[in-house]
Design goal:
Elements (H helix, E strand, L loop, with lengths): L5 E8 L5 H11 L18 H6 L7 E7 L5 E7 L8 H8 L4 E7 L6 H12 L3 E7 L8 H10 L9 E2 L8 H11 L12 E10 L3 E10 L2 E2 L3 E4 L5 E3 L2 E6 L1 E4 L2 E2 L4 E5 L13 E4 L18 E7 L5 H14 L4 E7 L3 E8 L2 H14 L4 E3 L6 E5 L4 E4 L11 E16 L3 H10 L3 E7 L4 E9 H15 L5 E12 L1 E8 L2 E2 L5 E4 H18 L7 E7 L2 E8 L15 H16 L1 E4 L2 E4 H8 L3
Parallel strand pairs: 1-3, 1-4, 4-5, 5-6
Antiparallel strand pairs: 2-3, 7-8, 7-16, 8-15, 9-14, 10-11, 10-16, 12-13, 12-15, 17-19, 17-20, 18-19, 21-22, 21-23, 23-25, 23-26, 24-25, 27-28, 27-29, 27-30, 30-31, 32-33
Helix pairs in contact: 9-10, 11-13
Bound molecules: guanosine-5'-triphosphate.
Length: 599
Amino acid sequence: ADSSLTRNFCIIAHIDHGKSTLADRFIDMAHINFSRGPAQAQMLDNMDIERERGITIKSQAVTIPYTAKDGKVYQLNLVDTPGHVDFSYEVSRAISSCEGALLLIDATQGVEAQTLANLYMAMEHNLTIIPVINKVDLASADIEACLHQIDHDLGLDSSLAVQVSAKTGFGVDALFEAIVKQIQHPEGKDAFPLQALIFDSHYDAYRGVIVHCRVFDGVLKVGDEIQFMNTGGVYKVEEAGIFQLELIKTGELHAGDVGYVITGVKTISDVRVGDTITSTNRPAKKPLPGFMDVKPVVYSSIYPVDTNDYEELVSAIEKLKLNDASLIYEKDSSAALGFGFRCGFLGMLHLEVIQERIEREFDLSIVFTSPSVKYIVHLKNGETINIDNPLEYPDPMRVEYAEEPYIQANVITPTQYVGPIINLCMEKRGTQTGMNYLDEKRVELIYEMPLAEVLFEFYDRLKSISRGYASFDYQVIAYKRTDLVRLDILVNGEPVDALSQLVFRGNSQNRGRQVCERLRGEIPRQQYKIAIQAAIGGTIVSRETITAFRKDVTAKCYGGDISRKRKLLEKQKEGKKRMKMVGNVEIPQSAFLAVLKSD
Ligand code: GTP
């Protein structure tokens, strides 16, 4: 292989700016789309949920052969990057597998928060950046404004920008030429010891774990013994090749190549994104830089609505874990909900994706407990403990103080929404650390805020006060001292452990009232009065009552009509499957979810 004819690049874009559509156009135009009909939209996102939500969650690469105007056949390796902040470490590994990036900007929207966040990342890795203005076919496209932003906000040369319509294919040829001309070829040497960066992996039911990698130096061949340098695992290369929608066996990968490796790795947890593959025969001196063990930032427990479904939940979680190394879990149990799992997620979107997959792919009704961040609690006896589960919060008498994680939040908004957004950030205990006018119309606001505040409502409210125009990106920066309390929820005097949450004392009254009100709205009247209370320690901070109601569904049936009666009872039983008994009260699944959601 001649690496002077190779180009490794990724597309960085804000959600919905057209990354998947552009990737599809690349594939169409490179004529490698042989086995699947063109009707199948967005081939790089191969999970249904992704397609429905239009979000790229797991990255996937593709090698596109392209005959350029100079008559040579280039190998263009597109490394797909996930588009959401929850997956930013994966984005960083994908970016560092490339020499260049296409910075895709929706001509009707302009630059947004994630465009900037990813751009900075690409700049840190010294990538050549080609600005690409997409959706120029739309009447509302404002190309002039985009060119201006490219020059002024991004500090890039707008004269190099390529205008395309990923939808119609307009401009895509010119873009291929720009990739070939502007992005440099990879520089590694086959003769050096092997260093290949793992930027993704996926699980295939037939072939096991497929590792996605970029070879920087050396050659990786079938039969070689390899080692993952950071985790230590030693394996034999069973197969290697490139991605062309399917896996195409080549038997070896050379310096500069992007492709896949199949080894005897059994579970995806043994493969860490960011790790370096080397050969045991002639190992590299040190791994490639930037390896990090990704840690979850949000924790929540999952319980089956029907305790009889526990075994099915076990198998669902195990299957999901095969495909998702970042899902962390351990067994958990709750007095109110029975057996379940305590899980760690990369963010709220990750949590929602897992929830949807369990419900949809495994047809299970589940309950999530209130999500929590991880707190550091300093005890009076000098010990420090990490707590992400409210049930493990120690007796307040033993606590000296607690710390909670803070994020740096970057919000980009049209100027007219700055006032309300500043109010929102203040309400969420944010401290402004920066404010940049990107141009006359748009401002970037930088805040330090507790991560816990972002879990509840923040994003939805930001979108609603800015009519969808503000965009948001964040990263966890540090732990800071906080005043923490445990808020308990009691239904008819029984604590519902699954609804307990750790909250900032200043928010506890409001939060307690909110939860009680929502529960009142969600729990149907029953045959006796129900008291819903929120308490901190022994003190009740809020209370709601649901009055009694007598409902006899069979009363309307005439004594003789057994089948009708049975049908009604069955229907009622069906409904109960989605109910959880807590003490003597039936709580619907929706009530647990309602506690997490904002209005
Ligand atoms: P994520 O995967 O969520 O990051 O989104 P994406 O950036 O991949 O965006 P996607 O390709 O899903 O496109 C978003 C929407 O824009 C879709 O409805 C596309 O059909 C539409 N779209 C993309 N490119 C163009 C274009 O050039 N012109 C027009 N008119 N619509 C486009």
